[in-house]
Amino acid sequence: MQKLVGAGDFVRREPNDFVVHLNNESMTVGTYSIPAGGVDDQLPHREDEIYVVTAGRATLVTPGLTTPVGPGDVLFVPADEEHEFTDITEGLALLVFFAPPYTGRP
């Protein structure tokens, strides 16, 4: 058992902040923070990804969907799908689950 202290807490750093809380043979868990007015600079990942919005408000844009997101929303993005958070009106904190484990950008 492991308790992930600070997982999902907003961290204000410019431009963005990604902290890994757990990385093992089956998954990676981290927190991704983007400040209000910030720009999401991520590229598609090789892993499936689940986001849990713990704080803030933004819009998630993918090729097939544009949707507002806020605290409590749970979002699934399949591997290799383009996606970005836009219109970040409040500091955005996302609890992120990658499976298989995160290996970095392509």
Set down the secondary structure blueprint.
Layout: E1 17-23, E2 28-34, E3 48-62, E4 65-69, E5 74-77, E6 84-99
Antiparallel strand pairs: 1-2, 2-6, 3-4, 3-5, 3-6
Which properties best describe this structure?
single chain; 106 residues; mainly beta; Jelly Rolls
Written overview of the protein:
- There is one protein chain.
- The protein has 106 residues and is an all-beta fold.
- It is built from no helices and six strands.
The CATH homologous superfamily of the domain at 17-37 and 45-83 and 93-99 is termed Jelly Rolls
Ends distance: 32 Å
Supply the CATH architecture of the domain at 17-37 and 45-83 and 93-99. Answer: Sandwich
Report the uncertain regions: none
SS field, number of helical segments = 0
Instruction: Write the element-wise H/E pattern from the N-terminal end onward.
Output: EEEEEE
Short recap of the structure:
With about 110 residues, the chain is an all-beta fold.
